[in-house]
Amino acid sequence: MYTTHKKQQGITLISLILILGLIAFLTLLVLKISPIYMNHSKVVHALETLKHRTDIEKKSKTEVWNSLQKQFNMNYVYDVKQKDVKITSRGGYLKVQIIYHVKELIYGNLSVWVDFDNSIEVGVK
Question: Least enclosed by CB within 10 Å: which of 53, 70, 99, 109?
Answer without folding.
Answer: 109
